[in-house]
Automatic annotation (TrEMBL), chain A:
<dbReference type="InterPro" id="IPR008274">
    <property type="entry name" value="AldOxase/xan_DH_MoCoBD1"/>
</dbReference>
<dbReference type="InterPro" id="IPR036856">
    <property type="entry name" value="Ald_Oxase/Xan_DH_a/b_sf"/>
</dbReference>
<feature type="domain" description="Aldehyde oxidase/xanthine dehydrogenase a/b hammerhead">
    <location>
        <begin position="27"/>
        <end position="139"/>
    </location>
</feature>
<keyword id="KW-0500">Molybdenum</keyword>
<dbReference type="Pfam" id="PF01315">
    <property type="entry name" value="Ald_Xan_dh_C"/>
</dbReference>
<dbReference type="InterPro" id="IPR000674">
    <property type="entry name" value="Ald_Oxase/Xan_DH_a/b"/>
</dbReference>
<dbReference type="GO" id="GO:0005506">
    <property type="term" value="F:iron ion binding"/>
</dbReference>
Automatic annotation (TrEMBL), chain B:
<dbReference type="Pfam" id="PF02597">
    <property type="entry name" value="ThiS"/>
</dbReference>
<dbReference type="InterPro" id="IPR003749">
    <property type="entry name" value="ThiS/MoaD-like"/>
</dbReference>
<protein>
    <recommendedName>
        <fullName>Molybdopterin synthase sulfur carrier subunit</fullName>
    </recommendedName>
</protein>
<dbReference type="InterPro" id="IPR012675">
    <property type="entry name" value="Beta-grasp_dom_sf"/>
</dbReference>
<dbReference type="InterPro" id="IPR016155">
    <property type="entry name" value="Mopterin_synth/thiamin_S_b"/>
</dbReference>
Automatic annotation (TrEMBL), chain C:
<dbReference type="InterPro" id="IPR006058">
    <property type="entry name" value="2Fe2S_fd_BS"/>
</dbReference>
<dbReference type="InterPro" id="IPR036010">
    <property type="entry name" value="2Fe-2S_ferredoxin-like_sf"/>
</dbReference>
<dbReference type="InterPro" id="IPR012675">
    <property type="entry name" value="Beta-grasp_dom_sf"/>
</dbReference>
<keyword id="KW-0001">2Fe-2S</keyword>
<dbReference type="InterPro" id="IPR001041">
    <property type="entry name" value="2Fe-2S_ferredoxin-type"/>
</dbReference>
<keyword id="KW-0479">Metal-binding</keyword>
<dbReference type="Pfam" id="PF01799">
    <property type="entry name" value="Fer2_2"/>
</dbReference>
Length: 752, 81, 159
């Protein structure tokens, strides 16, 4: 995208209208995954392994099948046998198939082994009890460091890809190493070098809506699927592959989605429901329970990390090095590479080296979670920087400003940065009243920066004009947090018609071209760019009709405030022609007017944020209270500022949960101990303060209006910022998340 | 000729080199030529890579032009959440 | 299994349904009465997405059996608006963008309405503790709390 078609003065963009789906969402009308019903519908249920690692010797489904309420039972044999196993992430279809229905082995507590469809949900659950599975229990491992030890049980031979150096345990399946300069020379130049070890536990995305779908598939290979997903084309493609049907014969409709945060970018129950439906020849509804969500859908990876940073007395970082070991369950995919690439990205470093490991264990297959991999690395790196600042008596924002990456800086992951907004967020943090506000006794303040790449991805948008001059926009990215409002604002900006005259619909897979998932903070960027381009395409056609009517060349017509107007005094003297007058007779002046745009935009633009946190530690109980929180982040251009603030606040709140409470707890038996919200405690309203936000706008050259994605970066700084605040309040460096009361208490007593 | 900077984990596949040179005018050609010159790079390129041209990250596109003299980095394929 | 006949009142309308004695009130509202506004987020009374009122008392409908609704008055999100006039809470939730995905919204609205009927002038802390049983994963609660506080202020002025 050329810089010169970038707009800077806006009429609609930057305003805060009500979201178009507001009424549906406050009245209970909005249809989410579990809210769809079909005539003759059956209810599905899935039998799951109680063992962390076990060979499946035999599955006897005959007693379940004998029940009159049971209409179908499926096991792995009911899925395609043509999906090929490949190492690493190349064979992702095989990995997903193996995850949605176990083959020879159950690989984690909660792994699906069989499923039934029955006339009621209760009958389906009763039938599961009649399925007899004979297991040969195998040794298991759930800890990342233990999984890399020579005597660790092997999850799956041959899963490692090209990148893994020889001699590593087969559970190490991918390896990343990058950086530049000479770190040893850099450490030698430093006045102070700190090296430390950090651990984070796996956390779940914690969307309130469990996975749910309604599936219909016939023996003719034609199917319909309704499901809650971040991307229905990936669901279509994956389900078709796993069931051995043609992709285009499966029509997938995305329901309203009750949160995703990365966790709904793949499939879990959808192929199972389709397989049951095919066998029963009836629609099948399948809804996960919360404990199934915890046990069998993607938490994020857990991490074990070593970070070493050298600094001069003036705050200059001379060298930085990190080793990041990420555990992503029984399949390749833990984002060790991304942790490594993002960890030092905020800084201008002469000498940097980062290593990332992707390690398999007997846990559920990790799924993306908001800036996957980045928060853990930032926790380790920003903690060490904080400790260096403390020991050298330096201001943590000044030190970050001194070392901050700017336009032209060689990034820790290789290339030079284009225009970025890190310095602007740091300057805004320094100037913010929060940073200079006095702290009470027992409180500590923490700062952290955070980085995320952002993403473009395949995108198609269609826009159709109605005879009355209103517009309907069809996008392919499920609306997770108000994106229909931002699409309508961008379309209104180009068309020059009121926001209310535009209806944005998330189209199904049969009515629009392929769209990548709503992930990578890409929706406002990529679907937004495509919406703008589709609207511009429609405007070109509107101008053509006006030119024909006026009998002047099309390049003598321009579009202004929803009207065609002559481009200058020489073009002719015509009154502005409003959109509704052109569309009123469009059927007789050349046919219906639509605009389209399809592309894979490649200018997402990386994003940075800086957070300031105050925390208070109760020295008797070890409980931490967040007393003040400020998020400062570069949004490029905020299309609907209220929803941008919402993304900042939501990211911070999830980060607070990750930092203070949330963790996957496994017993010695390899079973998940806390698979309910009571024991896996996400932040509740009384845990949090108001979360202040500052939107910094450093335009992204890759978007016509300057947009940078905002969804993910907000979860990168909180872990470190809170750890720094708690460490400063407690007077002890916290190196392990979550900083739950027992762990803080132990640290205070000096045995943490 | 385009100078391509690799991430250091790939050195073992290019005989220790972290910067290699190939003839290419767009991203697709670049990846093809890299595999031709260094067949062992097929693994990572099959697994998915992104290409940064003068700091602009091309996540997956094979048709992006590479202007003469630009700074080119091969990166792990970008993924989102 | 034989089903039980239940007669109850939902949002002022008398309704009846047949249900298995093991079915929850939430299942009955959704699967028997097609009222899908209340959501199941956990099934264990931890998330509040299924909040309804039972004879005026705020409950998690996933922890109530369908048969317990016999002779009771139930209020759900579908009954908050007065015909085509939205309740002030509903208006403020839209205005404040107090929802992102919106799946927790029905439960939060039912709970917040119950709060304001009991306490028309709550402090921020009171709102936070009252809504502590309603999980929201998207918003960080900031805009929800502001919307509830502002609705309370508006309702007080209207009196």
């Amino acid at each position: 995208m050329a810089l010169d078609d970038r707009k800077t003065d806006f009429k609609f963009v930057g305003t805060r209208p009500d979201r178009p789906d507001g009424l549906d969402k406050v009245t209970g009308r909005a249809k989410f995954g579990a809210d769809m019903y079909a005539p003759g519908m059956l209810h599905g249920a899935i039998l799951r392994s109680p063992h962390a690692h076990a060979r499946i010797v035999k599955i006897d489904t005959s007693k379940a099948e004998a029940l009159k309420d049971v209409k179908a039972v499926v096991t792995r044999a009911d899925f395609s046998d043509e999906v090929e196993f490949k190492p690493g992430l190349e064979g992702e279809f095989w990995n997903v198939l193996e995850n949605v229905m176990a083959g020879e082995k159950a690989l984690y507590d909660g792994h699906a082994v069989a499923a039934v469809a029955a006339t009621s949900a209760l009958a389906a659950r009763d039938a599961l009890k009649l399925i007899e599975v004979e297991y040969e229990v195998l040794p298991h491992v759930t800890d990342v460091d233990k999984a890399m030890e020579p005597d660790a049980p092997v999850i799956r031979e041959g899963a490692a890809d090209y990148s893994v150096p020889e001699g590593m345990h087969p559970n190490v399946v991918r390896y990343h190493e990058s950086g530049h300069g000479d770190v040893e020379a850099g450490f030698a130049e430093a006045d102070l070098v700190i090296e430390d070890h950090f651990d984070t536990e796996a956390t779940h995305q914690g969307y309130i809506e469990p996975h749910a779908c309604l599936a219909m598939l016939g023996n003719d290979g034609k199917g319909e699927l309704w499901c809650c997903t971040q991307g229905h084309w990936i669901v279509q493609k994956t389900c078709a592959a796993l069931l051995g049907i043609e992709t285009s014969q499966l029509r997938v409709t995305a329901s309203e989605i009750g949160g995703g945060f990365g966790g709904k970018t793949t499939v879990f129950i959808e192929p199972v429901a389709l397989a049951l439906s095919r066998k029963a020849n009836r629609p099948v509804k399948l809804v996960m329970s919360r404990s199934e969500v915890f046990r069998a859908t993607g938490p994020t990876a857990s991490a074990s990390m070593d970070v070493k940073i050298g600094m001069k007395k003036d705050g200059t970082i001379t060298a930085a090095q990190g080793v990041f070991r990420l555990q992503g369950g029984a399949f390749p995919g833990a984002p060790g590479d991304f942790t490594a690439m993002c960890a030092f990205a905020p800084y201008n470093l002469t000498n940097v080296r980062q290593v990332g490991y992707d390690v398999m264990t007997n846990r559920p297959k990790q799924a993306a979670y908001r800036a996957p991999g980045a928060p853990m690395g930032a926790f380790a790196v920003e903690s060490v920087i904080d400790e260096l600042c403390n020991q050298l008596g330096l201001d943590p924002i000044d030190v970050r400003l001194k070392n901050a990456a700017r336009e032209g800086t060689k990034a820790s992951y290789g290339p030079r940065y284009p225009r970025i907004g890190l310095v602007e967020t740091l300057e805004a943090a320094k100037a913010h009243p929060h940073y200079s506000a006095p702290l009470k006794p027992g409180q500590g303040r923490g700062i952290s920066c955070g980085f995320w790449f952002n993403h473009g991805g395949e995108t198609s948008v269609s826009l159709a004009l109605s005879e009355d001059g209103s517009a309907q926009v069809m996008v392919g990215t499920p609306d997770i947090g108000g994106s229909r409002a931002s699409m309508a604002l961008m379309a209104a900006e180009v068309l020059g018609i009121p926001y209310e005259n535009i209806r944005v619909t998330v189209a199904d897979t049969a009515t629009l071209g392929y769209n990548d998932v709503s992930h990578g903070s890409r929706v406002t960027y990529a679907s937004g760019l495509a919406t703008i381009k589709a609207a511009q395409n429609a405007v070109e056609k509107l101008c053509e009709r006006a030119a024909a009517k006026w009998g002047i060349p099309v390049d003598a017509v321009k579009w202004e405030n929803g009207c065609a107007v002559p481009s200058g005094p020489n073009a002719g003297d015509f009154d502005p022609l409003p959109i509704a007058e052109i569309t009123a007779d469009m059927g007789r002046t050349g046919g219906p007017i639509s605009g389209h745009f399809e592309a894979t935009p490649e200018g997402a633009g990386v994003s940075f944020g800086t957070h300031i946190v105050d925390a208070e530690v109760d020295r008797e109980t070890g409980k931490t209270t967040i007393t003040r929180y400020t998020v400062i982040q570069d949004a490029g251009k905020a299309i609907h500022p209220t929803y941008v603030e919402g993304q900042f606040q939501g990211g911070a709140a999830q980060g607070i949960g990750w930092a203070l409470n949330e963790e996957y707890i496994y017993g010695e038996d390899g079973r998940l101990q806390n698979a309910v919200f009571l024991d896996y405690r996400i932040p509740v309203a009384s845990d949090l303060p108001m979360i202040d936000t500052v939107i910094v706008e450093v335009p992204n050259p890759g978007h016509p209006f300057g947009v940078r994605g905002v969804g993910e970066t907000g979860i990168v700084p909180p872990l470190a910022a809170i750890a720094n605040a708690v460490s400063n309040a407690a007077g002890v460096r916290m190196r392990q998340l979550p900083m739950s009361p027992p762990r803080v208490l132990a640290a205070l007593k000096g045995d943490g | 000729m385009v100078e391509v900077h690799l991430w250091s984990g790939l050195r073992s596949l290019t005989g220790g080199r972290e910067v290699v040179e190939v003839e290419a005018s767009n991203t697709g050609e670049l990846l093809r030529e890299l595999v031709r010159a260094y067949p062992q790079l097929e693994g990572p390129i099959q697994a998915g890579v992104s290409v940064a041209i003068d700091g602009r990250i091309i996540a997956s596109g094979l048709t992006e032009p590479i202007p003469e003299g630009s700074e080119v980095y091969l990166m792990q394929r970008l993924r989102g959440g | 299994m034989s089903k039980i006949h239940v007669t109850t009142t939902v949002n002022g309308d008398e309704v009846d349904f047949l249900c298995d004695p093991r079915e929850t009130l939430l299942d009955c509202l959704r699967d028997r009465l097609n009222l899908t506004g209340a959501k199941e987020g956990c099934g264990t009374g931890d998330c509040g997405a299924c909040s309804v009122t039972l004879d005026g008392r705020l409950v998690c409908s996933c922890l109530v059996l369908g048969v317990e609704a016999e002779g009771k008055e139930i209020g759900t999100v579908e009954g908050i608006a007065d015909g085509d006039v939205l309740h002030p809470l509903q208006k403020k939730f839209i205005e404040y963008a107090a929802l992102q995905c919106g799946v927790c919204t029905p439960g939060i609205l039912v709970a917040a309405k119950a709060l304001l009927e009991k306490n028309p002038d709550p402090t921020e802390e009171e709102v936070r503790y009252w809504l502590a049983g309603n999980l929201c994963r998207c918003t960080g609660y900031d805009k929800i709390i502001r919307a509830v506080m502002d609705t309370a202020a508006e309702l007080r002025e209207a009196v």
